[in-house]
Structures are given as C-alpha cells and as structure tokens.
Design goal:
By secondary structure, the protein is of the alpha/beta class. It has two domains: about 180 residues, 3-Layer(aba) Sandwich (Rossmann fold); about 180 residues, Glutathione S-transferase Yfyf (Class Pi), Chain A, domain 2, CATH 1.20.1050.90. Helix content is about 45%, strand content about 25%. It has 13 helices and 15 strands. The strands form three sheets. Strands 2-1-4-5-6-7 form a six-stranded antiparallel beta sheet, covered by helices on one side. Strand 14 and strand 15 form a beta hairpin. Helix 5 crosses helix 8. The longest helix has about 40 residues. It is globular, with a radius of gyration of 22 Å. It binds adenosine-5'-diphosphate and magnesium ion. The site of adenosine-5'-diphosphate (ADP) has 15 residues, from helix 1. The site of magnesium ion has 5 residues, from helix 1.
Amino acid sequence: MILESLQLIQFKNHSNTQLVFSPGVNCLLGKNGSGKTNVLDGIHYLCLTKSALHGSDALQVQHGKDFFSLKGNFRVQASPLEVRCSVEMGKKKQVFQNGKCIEKVSDHVGHIPIVLIAPDDTELIKGGSEGRRKFFDGLLSQLDRNYLEQLIRYHHFLKQRNALLKQFGETGRRDLTLLDTYDEELIRLSVLLANRRAALLSDIGPLIQEHYLSLSSGKEKVEVIYQTEALQPDFSANFLLLRQKDLATKTSNAGIHKDDIDLRIDSYPLRKVGSQGQQKSFLIALKLAQFHYFEKAKGEKPLLLLDDIFDKLDDERIAKLLEMVAKGNFGQLFLTDARPERSREFLKSLGKEVNYFTLHDGQVLA
Ligand SMILES: Nc1ncnc2c1ncn2[C@@H]1O[C@H](COP(=O)(O)OP(=O)(O)O)[C@@H](O)[C@H]1O
Ligand SMILES: [Mg+2]
C-alpha cells in the first residue's frame, strides 16, 4: 500500500497543498499549528471517508469556505488507485475511485488500510466505552464490509427505536407492533455483531501482548476483555424485559451499544492502575497489533501514520519503534515533528532514505 501523492484543497488550514511522497519514510516538519497533523488527517479521510479527530465534516472545511476536496494517488497491490473525496456543505459527500463515483460511501472503507498512532490520544484508554467500541468497530469495518453494513443498520434501527420511545412519551399512544419489529432486528443484529467483536478480541489479544512486551521492558500481562450481554443465553428475554425501563427512560437500555472493552494490566483496569508509560505502551501495542492484523488479512502492509511520536514518547519506546521500522516490519511511513534536528537525529539510525517536508501556515516550503 503506497500513497504516491496527495492534494488538499480548502481542507482546514491547507488552501491548496500538493505533496509527492516517497514509498519509504516521509517526515513532515514545521512549527506547531503549521498543518502537519492536518496532512495526516487528510490521508486518514481519503482512506476512511472521515476525519480521525472525531470532527464532523463541517469542521474540516476551511473557515469561510463551503467545500473541501482531497485527492490521493495510491498503489494497491501494485495497481494505481486514485481516490477523491469532495465535500460541499449541505450536500451529500462524494467519493470517487479512479474517477468513478462510489454509490455508497461506506463501500470505499477498507480499500486502503491505514493505522494512525497519536500517542497523546489516550481517550481510548481513559475515556468512556464509546471510544473503545468505535476503535474496534473501525478496525472490523476496514476488514469486513458485511460488519460495517450490519453496524450501520443497527444504529439506524436504534435511532428509530429511540425516536419511537420519545414519541410514545409525547403522544401517550403506543404502537407496540412497530416496537416489536425494531426489537427483533436489534436483537438479531446484536448477536451477529457481538460474535464478530468477540472473535476479533480473542484473535488480537495475543498480538497486543506480544507488541506490549517488545515495546516496554516490563513483563506485565495485558488483556482486552469483551463485556457484552448480547452473548448471554437469556439476552433476548432480557432485552424484552427491559422494555418497561426503555419506555420510562425513552432510550434503549439493552443491545451492543452498551458493550465495553476492558483494557487490563495484570488483571487490573489499565485506566486506573497503569502508569502513563504503561498506558502509552498499551495504546501503541494496540495500534501495532491492528497493523499486523490488517497485514495478515489483506496480504499487504497498511499505511502507518505516526503523529508527534518524538515529542510524546520516551527514548526507549521511540528506539523500539524505529528498530521495528528499520527491520522492515512496516511499509510506507508518515511522521510529524516540530523539531527538525531531533527527528533527523532519530531517523538517521534507520539507515533509510527519508523524505522531509517543511510546512508553514498550511503551505509546503520549497
Ligand atoms: N477548518 C479549519 N479552517 C482553517 N484552519 C483550521 C481549520 N481547522 C483547523 N485549522 C487550523 O489548523 C492549525 C492546526 O494544524 P495542525 O495540522 O494540527 O498543526 P500541527 O502542525 O501542529 O500538527 C491550527 O492553526 C488551526 O487553527
Ligand atoms: Mg500536530
């Protein structure tokens, strides 16, 4: 998987930026706020049709403008693939592959696997369960179109059901036949999706442990434990039993939108007992496990984006990561750093050619 060139038009602070990348290591330099992370986010957008920064499309459009457009020329299994995403406010977003408009945007997801490591983004570890569900759902969606479609369908029905519960509250009239239909579909999809989540987590657990040990000098046992009601034998009965509560609270209290994924270190919650270093190692191990899981499933190395790693990781972890890069464990690499001397020093140890780009105010300096 290679990104040969990228164009960002009216995407955040990039008015019109064009970059031609090396198939090896690409390092984006520039002061804070110059637009380095925005370039990585543009790549993320082209691969997954959304920003990595949890922002809606409206936040990606350059202030004062009403559209943005991104274009990337990729090589997938040695074949050229041009991807263009064009987003105009108030209109449906459009994604083109080799000039052809993709009917369903979700059909594009998974064509170009990508892994982004932003060590500062500890939301996955410290935040609520939604962030973790989103991460593992995103992982599965890149691998399995069926999963993504079922998940979209699940959220659609959930939204409908919640709206219906509210409507019952407002009108005092209850159309239980319609509620029955939603329940049946949500129960069916919960079981399907939960089985996929469970299979993924049991496959990826050992990979996370392996990467954790190779990144840190510790010997801790790390685990990802899936918490779901959907695989209990009485799930369907419990779903229906909760209906009274649903009617009272006007929300749906059962289903896979209530799942969590516990991250544990030596059997304790990572969020509570893990040191900052242990949490970062866990986060990176999780992403590296994702990388190798994708590689195995797709037979090709994903793009790897490393945002601010020199700033946010200690020397030992940086050295371990770069050692993996030098060994050829990764394919094309994109890094960002605000301090040119520091990154040149670190990257020298790779013994590989590195392409440097310097950004200033959303422009590439020649
Ligand atoms: N929608 C937008 N329109 C214009 N500028 C934006 C928009 N969103 C973010 N920015 C600007 O982008 C800059 C941050 O860019 P970023 O890529 O995060 O910088 P860094 O080089 O530090 O990684 C900030 O100056 C911010 O104001
Ligand atoms: Mg940044």
